[in-house]
From TrEMBL:
CDD domains: GH43_CoXyl43_like (cd18619). Gene3D superfamilies: Glycosyl hydrolase domain, family 43. The record marks D152 as: Important for catalytic activity, responsible for pKa modulation of the active site Glu and correct orientation of both the proton donor and substrate. It comes from Pedobacter duraquae. One of its GO terms (biological process) is xylan catabolic process. Pfam families: Glyco_hydro_43. GO terms for molecular function: hydrolase activity, hydrolyzing O-glycosyl compounds. InterPro entries: Glyco_hydro_43, Glyco_hydro_beta-prop_sf, Glycosyl_Hydrlase_43_Enz. The keyword Endoplasmic reticulum does not apply. Keywords: Carbohydrate metabolism, Glycosidase, Hydrolase, Polysaccharide degradation, Signal, Xylan degradation. Belongs to the glycosyl hydrolase 43 family. This is Glycosyl hydrolase family 43.
Length: 342
Protein backbone atom coordinates (compact mmCIF):
# COMPACT_ATOMS: atom_id res chain seq x y z
CA UNK A 1 0.00 0.00 0.00
CA UNK A 2 2.77 2.37 1.06
CA UNK A 3 4.81 1.61 -2.03
CA UNK A 4 1.81 2.18 -4.27
CA UNK A 5 1.08 5.62 -2.85
CA UNK A 6 4.77 6.59 -3.05
CA UNK A 7 4.76 5.58 -6.74
CA UNK A 8 1.57 7.57 -7.37
CA UNK A 9 3.06 10.66 -5.71
CA UNK A 10 6.20 10.40 -7.84
CA UNK A 11 4.14 10.08 -11.04
CA UNK A 12 2.03 13.12 -10.04
CA UNK A 13 5.20 15.11 -9.34
CA UNK A 14 6.73 14.08 -12.66
CA UNK A 15 3.53 15.05 -14.52
CA UNK A 16 3.44 18.44 -12.81
CA UNK A 17 7.07 19.15 -13.56
CA UNK A 18 6.32 18.99 -17.30
CA UNK A 19 4.49 22.31 -17.15
CA UNK A 20 5.85 25.83 -16.89
CA UNK A 21 3.14 26.70 -14.35
CA UNK A 22 0.35 25.04 -12.38
CA UNK A 23 -3.47 25.49 -12.53
CA UNK A 24 -4.72 28.45 -10.47
CA UNK A 25 -7.75 26.50 -9.22
CA UNK A 26 -8.98 22.94 -9.47
CA UNK A 27 -12.50 23.02 -7.93
CA UNK A 28 -13.98 23.95 -11.33
CA UNK A 29 -12.67 23.94 -14.92
CA UNK A 30 -11.86 27.41 -16.27
CA UNK A 31 -10.55 28.80 -19.58
CA UNK A 32 -10.05 31.98 -21.63
CA UNK A 33 -8.83 34.09 -18.68
CA UNK A 34 -9.19 37.88 -19.05
CA UNK A 35 -7.24 39.36 -16.14
CA UNK A 36 -7.51 42.90 -14.73
CA UNK A 37 -6.36 44.78 -11.65
CA UNK A 38 -9.07 46.73 -9.80
CA UNK A 39 -8.26 48.56 -6.54
CA UNK A 40 -4.95 46.72 -6.29
CA UNK A 41 -6.55 43.25 -6.48
CA UNK A 42 -6.32 40.80 -9.39
CA UNK A 43 -9.61 39.65 -10.97
CA UNK A 44 -9.81 36.93 -13.61
CA UNK A 45 -12.85 36.66 -15.90
CA UNK A 46 -12.73 33.15 -17.41
CA UNK A 47 -15.10 30.83 -19.21
CA UNK A 48 -16.46 28.12 -16.90
CA UNK A 49 -15.98 24.79 -18.68
CA UNK A 50 -18.34 21.91 -17.92
CA UNK A 51 -18.88 18.36 -19.12
CA UNK A 52 -22.13 18.81 -21.05
CA UNK A 53 -21.82 15.50 -22.90
CA UNK A 54 -21.81 17.15 -26.34
CA UNK A 55 -19.76 15.46 -29.10
CA UNK A 56 -16.51 17.19 -30.05
CA UNK A 57 -16.66 18.89 -33.49
CA UNK A 58 -15.11 21.76 -35.50
CA UNK A 59 -18.09 23.93 -34.59
CA UNK A 60 -17.10 23.82 -30.90
CA UNK A 61 -20.41 22.30 -29.74
CA UNK A 62 -18.51 20.59 -26.90
CA UNK A 63 -17.88 24.04 -25.34
CA UNK A 64 -21.40 24.28 -23.91
CA UNK A 65 -20.86 26.57 -20.94
CA UNK A 66 -23.77 27.85 -18.83
CA UNK A 67 -22.40 30.47 -16.40
CA UNK A 68 -19.42 32.57 -15.34
CA UNK A 69 -17.43 32.44 -12.10
CA UNK A 70 -14.99 35.27 -11.39
CA UNK A 71 -11.71 34.46 -9.68
CA UNK A 72 -9.74 36.88 -7.53
CA UNK A 73 -6.44 37.03 -5.68
CA UNK A 74 -4.48 39.66 -3.76
CA UNK A 75 -1.24 39.07 -5.67
CA UNK A 76 0.43 36.57 -7.99
CA UNK A 77 1.02 33.37 -6.03
CA UNK A 78 -1.58 34.23 -3.36
CA UNK A 79 -4.68 32.14 -2.60
CA UNK A 80 -7.23 32.20 -5.45
CA UNK A 81 -10.90 32.77 -4.56
CA UNK A 82 -13.74 31.45 -6.71
CA UNK A 83 -16.47 34.06 -6.16
CA UNK A 84 -19.32 31.76 -7.26
CA UNK A 85 -21.84 32.31 -10.06
CA UNK A 86 -21.55 35.88 -11.41
CA UNK A 87 -23.94 35.50 -14.35
CA UNK A 88 -26.01 32.54 -15.49
CA UNK A 89 -27.29 31.87 -19.01
CA UNK A 90 -30.84 31.58 -17.67
CA UNK A 91 -30.69 35.25 -16.62
CA UNK A 92 -29.80 36.47 -20.12
CA UNK A 93 -33.19 36.98 -21.80
CA UNK A 94 -31.97 36.60 -25.41
CA UNK A 95 -29.45 33.77 -24.90
CA UNK A 96 -29.67 30.35 -26.52
CA UNK A 97 -26.50 28.39 -25.74
CA UNK A 98 -22.72 28.48 -25.21
CA UNK A 99 -21.37 31.23 -22.97
CA UNK A 100 -17.86 31.67 -24.36
CA UNK A 101 -14.85 33.87 -23.50
CA UNK A 102 -15.78 37.11 -21.64
CA UNK A 103 -13.98 40.32 -20.71
CA UNK A 104 -14.69 43.26 -18.42
CA UNK A 105 -14.20 47.04 -18.28
CA UNK A 106 -14.67 49.60 -15.50
CA UNK A 107 -16.07 53.09 -15.88
CA UNK A 108 -17.66 55.60 -13.50
CA UNK A 109 -18.20 53.17 -10.62
CA UNK A 110 -19.67 50.36 -12.78
CA UNK A 111 -18.10 47.14 -14.05
CA UNK A 112 -19.22 46.04 -17.53
CA UNK A 113 -18.97 42.33 -18.34
CA UNK A 114 -18.92 41.64 -22.09
CA UNK A 115 -19.80 38.11 -23.14
CA UNK A 116 -20.47 36.14 -26.36
CA UNK A 117 -23.36 33.69 -26.44
CA UNK A 118 -25.47 32.21 -29.23
CA UNK A 119 -28.91 33.78 -29.45
CA UNK A 120 -32.06 31.72 -29.86
CA UNK A 121 -31.36 31.42 -33.64
CA UNK A 122 -27.90 29.94 -32.89
CA UNK A 123 -26.04 33.09 -33.97
CA UNK A 124 -23.26 34.37 -31.71
CA UNK A 125 -23.85 37.92 -30.42
CA UNK A 126 -22.07 39.94 -27.74
CA UNK A 127 -23.94 41.05 -24.65
CA UNK A 128 -23.19 43.31 -21.69
CA UNK A 129 -24.01 42.86 -18.01
CA UNK A 130 -23.30 45.35 -15.22
CA UNK A 131 -22.37 45.29 -11.55
CA UNK A 132 -21.06 47.63 -8.87
CA UNK A 133 -18.75 44.82 -7.71
CA UNK A 134 -15.86 43.47 -9.87
CA UNK A 135 -16.69 39.93 -8.70
CA UNK A 136 -20.39 40.28 -9.55
CA UNK A 137 -23.16 39.28 -9.52
CA UNK A 138 -23.83 40.92 -12.92
CA UNK A 139 -27.19 41.85 -14.42
CA UNK A 140 -27.54 41.39 -18.19
CA UNK A 141 -28.95 44.08 -20.46
CA UNK A 142 -32.18 42.90 -22.15
CA UNK A 143 -30.63 42.75 -25.67
CA UNK A 144 -27.21 42.12 -27.23
CA UNK A 145 -25.03 45.07 -28.31
CA UNK A 146 -26.58 46.35 -31.57
CA UNK A 147 -24.44 45.32 -34.54
CA UNK A 148 -22.40 42.81 -32.53
CA UNK A 149 -21.64 39.27 -33.71
CA UNK A 150 -19.07 36.45 -33.39
CA UNK A 151 -17.04 35.80 -30.21
CA UNK A 152 -14.19 36.65 -27.84
CA UNK A 153 -14.73 40.33 -26.92
CA UNK A 154 -11.61 41.98 -25.43
CA UNK A 155 -12.03 45.54 -24.19
CA UNK A 156 -9.05 47.88 -24.03
CA UNK A 157 -9.22 51.28 -22.35
CA UNK A 158 -6.59 53.74 -23.60
CA UNK A 159 -4.81 56.40 -21.51
CA UNK A 160 -7.34 59.04 -22.72
CA UNK A 161 -10.23 56.99 -21.28
CA UNK A 162 -11.59 55.79 -24.66
CA UNK A 163 -12.52 52.11 -24.76
CA UNK A 164 -12.35 49.81 -27.77
CA UNK A 165 -13.66 46.30 -28.27
CA UNK A 166 -11.70 43.77 -30.33
CA UNK A 167 -13.71 40.67 -31.21
CA UNK A 168 -14.21 37.81 -33.63
CA UNK A 169 -13.26 34.24 -34.28
CA UNK A 170 -13.42 32.02 -37.38
CA UNK A 171 -14.74 28.40 -37.59
CA UNK A 172 -17.11 27.90 -34.60
CA UNK A 173 -16.85 31.63 -33.87
CA UNK A 174 -18.85 32.28 -37.10
CA UNK A 175 -16.87 35.37 -38.29
CA UNK A 176 -16.70 33.93 -41.84
CA UNK A 177 -20.49 33.89 -42.02
CA UNK A 178 -20.72 37.70 -41.92
CA UNK A 179 -19.12 38.40 -45.31
CA UNK A 180 -21.63 40.96 -46.50
CA UNK A 181 -22.65 42.39 -43.13
CA UNK A 182 -25.45 39.79 -42.85
CA UNK A 183 -25.36 36.33 -41.26
CA UNK A 184 -25.24 33.53 -43.84
CA UNK A 185 -26.35 30.30 -42.15
CA UNK A 186 -25.18 28.31 -45.19
CA UNK A 187 -21.80 30.02 -45.32
CA UNK A 188 -18.39 28.39 -44.89
CA UNK A 189 -17.76 26.37 -41.72
CA UNK A 190 -14.12 27.44 -41.48
CA UNK A 191 -12.78 30.60 -43.15
CA UNK A 192 -13.29 32.62 -46.36
CA UNK A 193 -11.88 29.71 -48.39
CA UNK A 194 -10.03 32.23 -50.56
CA UNK A 195 -6.52 31.00 -49.88
CA UNK A 196 -4.62 33.79 -51.68
CA UNK A 197 -6.76 36.65 -50.38
CA UNK A 198 -6.15 38.64 -47.16
CA UNK A 199 -7.27 36.50 -44.24
CA UNK A 200 -10.43 37.29 -42.30
CA UNK A 201 -9.44 39.17 -39.19
CA UNK A 202 -10.75 40.53 -35.90
CA UNK A 203 -13.02 43.58 -35.77
CA UNK A 204 -12.45 46.65 -33.63
CA UNK A 205 -15.09 49.17 -32.54
CA UNK A 206 -14.96 52.19 -30.26
CA UNK A 207 -17.35 51.82 -27.34
CA UNK A 208 -19.81 54.63 -26.56
CA UNK A 209 -19.56 56.73 -23.39
CA UNK A 210 -22.24 54.67 -21.65
CA UNK A 211 -20.24 51.48 -22.46
CA UNK A 212 -23.31 49.76 -23.93
CA UNK A 213 -22.93 50.25 -27.73
CA UNK A 214 -20.45 50.72 -30.58
CA UNK A 215 -19.79 54.06 -32.26
CA UNK A 216 -18.15 54.91 -35.57
CA UNK A 217 -18.72 51.51 -37.19
CA UNK A 218 -16.66 48.33 -37.17
CA UNK A 219 -13.15 48.27 -38.61
CA UNK A 220 -10.95 45.34 -39.62
CA UNK A 221 -7.84 44.77 -37.49
CA UNK A 222 -5.37 44.76 -40.37
CA UNK A 223 -2.26 42.61 -39.80
CA UNK A 224 0.64 43.24 -42.18
CA UNK A 225 3.84 41.31 -42.73
CA UNK A 226 7.22 43.11 -42.65
CA UNK A 227 6.80 43.92 -46.35
CA UNK A 228 3.52 45.73 -45.64
CA UNK A 229 1.34 43.01 -47.20
CA UNK A 230 -1.77 41.69 -45.40
CA UNK A 231 -1.49 38.14 -44.04
CA UNK A 232 -3.30 35.67 -46.31
CA UNK A 233 -5.96 33.05 -45.59
CA UNK A 234 -3.52 30.21 -46.32
CA UNK A 235 -0.99 31.53 -43.77
CA UNK A 236 -2.35 29.43 -40.88
CA UNK A 237 0.81 29.86 -38.78
CA UNK A 238 0.40 33.64 -38.63
CA UNK A 239 -3.14 34.77 -39.50
CA UNK A 240 -5.79 35.67 -36.88
CA UNK A 241 -8.15 32.90 -35.74
CA UNK A 242 -9.68 34.00 -32.37
CA UNK A 243 -8.83 35.15 -28.82
CA UNK A 244 -7.86 38.81 -29.43
CA UNK A 245 -6.21 40.91 -26.71
CA UNK A 246 -4.82 44.45 -26.68
CA UNK A 247 -2.23 46.01 -24.36
CA UNK A 248 -0.06 49.09 -24.60
CA UNK A 249 3.67 48.99 -23.86
CA UNK A 250 6.16 51.83 -24.38
CA UNK A 251 3.59 53.79 -26.42
CA UNK A 252 2.97 50.90 -28.88
CA UNK A 253 -0.30 49.01 -29.23
CA UNK A 254 0.20 45.23 -29.03
CA UNK A 255 -2.54 43.22 -30.74
CA UNK A 256 -2.15 39.59 -29.64
CA UNK A 257 -4.23 36.58 -30.70
CA UNK A 258 -4.50 32.85 -31.27
CA UNK A 259 -3.73 31.26 -34.64
CA UNK A 260 -6.31 28.56 -33.79
CA UNK A 261 -5.70 25.45 -35.86
CA UNK A 262 -1.92 25.95 -35.59
CA UNK A 263 -2.20 26.67 -31.83
CA UNK A 264 0.20 29.62 -31.47
CA UNK A 265 -0.17 32.93 -29.69
CA UNK A 266 1.10 35.71 -31.96
CA UNK A 267 1.69 39.45 -31.65
CA UNK A 268 1.48 42.41 -34.00
CA UNK A 269 2.22 46.04 -33.08
CA UNK A 270 0.81 49.36 -34.23
CA UNK A 271 0.76 53.07 -33.45
CA UNK A 272 -2.96 53.47 -32.78
CA UNK A 273 -5.69 51.25 -31.29
CA UNK A 274 -7.05 50.79 -34.83
CA UNK A 275 -3.75 49.66 -36.33
CA UNK A 276 -2.60 48.70 -38.87
CA UNK A 277 -0.49 46.20 -36.94
CA UNK A 278 2.76 44.66 -38.12
CA UNK A 279 3.22 40.97 -37.36
CA UNK A 280 6.07 40.37 -34.89
CA UNK A 281 6.03 36.61 -34.41
CA UNK A 282 4.87 33.88 -32.12
CA UNK A 283 5.27 34.43 -28.39
CA UNK A 284 3.75 31.25 -26.96
CA UNK A 285 4.14 27.71 -28.21
CA UNK A 286 1.10 25.41 -28.25
CA UNK A 287 -0.31 24.38 -24.88
CA UNK A 288 -1.89 20.98 -24.22
CA UNK A 289 -5.44 20.97 -25.65
CA UNK A 290 -6.71 22.32 -28.98
CA UNK A 291 -7.49 25.89 -27.93
CA UNK A 292 -5.12 28.58 -26.75
CA UNK A 293 -6.41 31.87 -25.32
CA UNK A 294 -4.75 34.51 -23.19
CA UNK A 295 -4.67 37.97 -21.62
CA UNK A 296 -1.69 40.17 -20.82
CA UNK A 297 -1.66 42.52 -17.83
CA UNK A 298 0.82 44.64 -15.85
CA UNK A 299 0.83 43.96 -12.12
CA UNK A 300 3.08 45.94 -9.80
CA UNK A 301 5.55 46.79 -12.58
CA UNK A 302 5.82 43.25 -14.00
CA UNK A 303 3.97 41.83 -17.00
CA UNK A 304 2.05 38.57 -16.85
CA UNK A 305 0.21 36.31 -19.29
CA UNK A 306 -2.88 34.45 -18.12
CA UNK A 307 -3.61 31.41 -20.30
CA UNK A 308 -5.10 27.92 -20.13
CA UNK A 309 -4.28 24.32 -20.91
CA UNK A 310 -5.83 20.92 -20.15
CA UNK A 311 -3.40 19.69 -17.49
CA UNK A 312 -6.12 18.63 -15.00
CA UNK A 313 -8.45 16.77 -17.38
CA UNK A 314 -6.53 15.88 -20.53
CA UNK A 315 -9.72 16.93 -22.38
CA UNK A 316 -9.85 19.84 -24.79
CA UNK A 317 -13.16 21.22 -23.42
CA UNK A 318 -12.23 20.95 -19.70
CA UNK A 319 -9.48 23.50 -19.25
CA UNK A 320 -7.67 25.17 -16.34
CA UNK A 321 -6.31 28.71 -16.15
CA UNK A 322 -2.70 29.52 -15.36
CA UNK A 323 -0.37 32.51 -15.15
CA UNK A 324 3.29 33.14 -15.87
CA UNK A 325 5.56 36.15 -16.40
CA UNK A 326 5.95 37.77 -19.82
CA UNK A 327 8.88 39.79 -21.15
CA UNK A 328 8.86 42.48 -23.85
CA UNK A 329 11.99 42.54 -26.00
CA UNK A 330 13.46 45.86 -27.11
CA UNK A 331 12.77 45.08 -30.81
CA UNK A 332 8.97 44.96 -30.38
CA UNK A 333 8.71 41.18 -30.07
CA UNK A 334 7.66 39.32 -26.92
CA UNK A 335 10.03 36.70 -25.51
CA UNK A 336 8.89 33.20 -26.49
CA UNK A 337 7.10 31.31 -23.71
CA UNK A 338 7.30 27.51 -23.78
CA UNK A 339 4.40 26.21 -21.68
CA UNK A 340 5.64 22.61 -21.76
CA UNK A 341 9.14 22.24 -20.42
CA UNK A 342 11.67 20.46 -22.60
O1 LIG B 1 -14.05 28.79 -24.70
C1 LIG B 1 -14.64 28.67 -25.97
C2 LIG B 1 -13.74 29.14 -27.04
O2 LIG B 1 -12.55 28.38 -27.03
C3 LIG B 1 -13.25 30.56 -26.90
O3 LIG B 1 -14.21 31.51 -27.22
C4 LIG B 1 -12.08 30.51 -27.82
O4 LIG B 1 -11.23 31.61 -27.74
C5 LIG B 1 -11.44 29.20 -27.41
O5 LIG B 1 -10.61 29.35 -26.30
Amino acid sequence: QNNQSTTKTSIDTLKKSKYLSQPLISNIFTADPSAHVFDGKIYIYPSHDIEAGKPENDNGDHFDMRDYHILSMDSIGAKVTDNGVALSIKDIPWAGRQLWAPDVAFKGGTYYLYFPVKDKSDIFRIGVATSKNPAGPFKAEPLPIPGSFSIDPAVFTDSDGSSYMYFGGIWGGQLQRWKNGKYDANGSKTDSQQEDQPALTAKVAKITNNMLSFEGGLKDVIILDKQGKQLLTKDHDRRFFEGAWMHKFNGKYYFTYSTGDTHYLASAIGDTPYGPFTYQGTFMDPVEGWTTHHSIVEIKGKWYIFYHDTQLSGKTHLRNVKVTELTHNADGTIKLIEPILK
